[in-house]
Specification:
single chain; alpha/beta; Rossmann fold; 9-stranded mixed β-sheet; 9 helices; globular
């Protein structure tokens, strides 16, 4: 009787395990379809990375998204930094995400302006000062679900601001978003360059193409005498790009107005003010447009909306 009972229990467990696995596989397949649906009309997906914190990656991400939008492109900005999301503060966005219009539909991102849509994992929190204490699997699932739930519509560029390093968040983006490209941000000093090499090798390992390297905080322009002081040296980012045979997108000098604008929610690098920093950033934008032009996306056979010319564009 003991053998019979043990055999029955083993069969039940095996059956239950199989059922659970089938349910998990079905849920995963459904989520994959949702991700494909969410990202299907986006022409260029750009993951902004850095090897270490404090190099201005989020500042570059925000100004890159806003700058491309100001140049007439349809742009999305997605913040997947679970532990330190800063994008909505840097843009001074106060709204909340609204539920989808129909049951089972996608969530519309917030609109910063007519050309820029923004979402952040911070919107998942009831208290924005709440600490997120999650292990890897929870982070991965949160990012996948976040991507699957968004209704971006048609975009020329989706800018994804990831936390520094080569951990769960950038890995999840690389594995979840097909054809994503990377832009690596660094400062010129050797410590930052040692870490950026790891980011470059990460991209090679997970087969993410690198669009180029940006050297941030490359010299400080004194607001009083207009002389440039190389606080963190200069040229290191360009040297690493040359070492790995990668495009160098440009160097951006430090400017106190960048810090003030970020705190005030009024991004400076993409502003119309003429300064060494804004001129340098305009060159970065032009380099990205050249390397990742907003080409027309393939027309879906079941696409029912568009501009009427058959190009698949909604603009």
């Amino acid at each position: 009787m003991a053998d019979s009972c043990g055999s029955s229990c083993s069969s039940a467990k095996a059956s239950g395990c199989g059922t659970t696995r089938e349910a998990q596989d079905a849920a995963l397949a459904q989520q994959e379809n949702a991700i494909t649906r969410s990202l299907g009309k986006i022409k260029n997906k750009i993951l902004v990375m850095s090897g270490k914190g404090g190099v201005g990656k989020s500042t570059v991400s925000v100004n890159l998204a806003l700058g491309l939008a100001q140049r007439g492109h349809m742009v999305g900005l997605m913040d997947v930094d679970i532990h330190g999301p800063d994008v909505i503060r840097m843009l001074n966005l106060k709204g909340t995400l609204e539920p989808p219009a129909t049951a089972g539909g996608l969530v519309p991102p917030l609109r910063y302006n007519d050309n820029l849509k923004v979402v952040s994992l911070e919107y998942m929190l009831k208290d924005r000062d709440q600490a997120i204490i999650w292990r890897g699997p929870l982070k991965i699932q949160a990012i996948r679900q976040f991507v699957a739930d968004m209704d971006w519509g048609e975009l020329d560029y989706l800018i994804i601001d990831a936390p520094p390093g080569t951990g769960d968040e950038p890995l999840s983006v690389a594995q979840t978003i097909p054809n994503v490209k990377a832009i690596v941000v660094t400062t010129p000093q050797k410590v930052a360059l040692a870490d950026v090499r790891k980011s470059i090798n990460f991209c090679k390992t997970v087969k993410v193409e690198i669009t180029g390297v940006i050297e941030n905080m490359s010299g400080f322009v004194c607001p009083h005498c207009n002389e440039t002081v190389d606080i963190f040296k200069t040229g290191g980012g360009e040297e690493v790009a040359r070492e790995f045979e990668l495009p160098f997108l440009g160097r951006i000098p430090m400017d106190p107005r960048i810090v003030v604008a970020g705190d005030d929610g009024t991004p400076y690098l993409s502003s119309s003010e003429d300064s060494p920093a804004t001129r340098a950033f305009a060159g970065v934008l032009k380099a990205i447009e050249t390397r990742l032009p907003p080409v027309k996306a393939p027309v879906s056979l079941n696409m029912t909306s568009g501009c009427g010319c058959g190009c698949g564009s909604s603009r």
